[in-house]
Amino acid sequence: GAGVSQSPSNKVTEKGKDVELRCDPISGHTALYWYRQRLGQGLEFLIYFQGNSAPDKSGLPSDRFSAERTGESVSTLTIQRTQQEDSAVYLCASSLGGGGNYGYTFGSGTRLTVV
Amino acid sequence: AQSVTQPDIHITVSEGASLELRCNYSYGATPYLFWYVQSPGQGLQLLLKYFSGDTLVQGIKGFEAEFKRSQSSFNLRKPSVHWSDAAEYFCAVGARYSTLTFGKGTMLLVSP
Predict the structure, then answer these.
(1) CATH code for the domain defined by A5-114
(2) CB nearest A99 (choices: B41, B49, B97)
(3) Residues of B with CB below 8 A from A4's CB?
(4) Of B34, B44, B99, which is closest to A48 when you measure between CB atoms?
(5) What confidence score (pLDDT) does residue A1 get?
(6) Is the Cβ pair A100, B95 closer than 8 Å?
């Protein structure tokens, strides 16, 4: 597509429920990244995909968080048994390659509210 | 490990005044440096990037940044700020085989 698409744009869920967030990267972008942005905070790295493998998932905060990617296409970030501290904007980005020499293109994010 | 420091959490500038946002990085080799802007409710948009060559880089929306290796800095500047520039600005550093590391951001407020 023309840009990085994320869905849903907003999600309100009850504590303890599972949620799935979706990211559709730019066509041809082999690298995909998930970041979390809590209110008033910077960007917190979660996971990086190169193709459908995840060379770096060091930022996932707990085993309640998981992500997968199908080929060089859509990725889903799943949060199980959501907690209130999971409330944040979840940003997805993609780039042509996996190195830091490529700029990232970001989606508009999914605002997750856990009540 | 690479890191980025944006010393100013908030900055207020009068419309029409000049702007400088500070960014200091820590990285052993030649870094790749980026500035992004985030308007409310939006994702991050790339303003400009530095890879090599001329240390003064021009970006979109009239922004520029200067890479100073001796000071490990990559400050963002604009000669005359417009009300529409009010947003949050993020500096990021990358290396060839690593992901980008972002600073915590600087919120720019523009007063009339």
Answers:
(1) 2.60.40.10
(2) B97
(3) 43
(4) B99
(5) 55
(6) yes
CATH of the domain at B75: 2.60.40.10
pLDDT digits (tens, 9 = 90+) for A40-86: 788 899 999 999 999 889 999 999 999 999 877 999 999 999 999 99
Query: How many domains is chain B partitioned into structurally?
Result: 1
Nearest CB partner across the interface for B105, out of A42, A45, A109? A42
* B98: containing domain: 3-111
Instruction: Give the Cα-Cα-Cα angle B64, A36, B103 (nearest 5 degrees).
Output: 35
Asked if residue B95 lies in contact with residue B29, where contact means CB atoms within 8 angstroms, the answer is yes
Query: What is the number of other CB atoms lying within 10 angstroms of the CB of residue A47?
Result: 23
What's the confidence (pLDDT) of residue B94? 86
B102 touching chain A per CB within 8 A: yes
- Sequence-distant (6+) residues with CB within 8 A of A8 are A21, A22, A110
Tens of pLDDT, residue by residue over B18-58, are 999 999 999 877 789 999 999 988 889 999 999 888 899 99
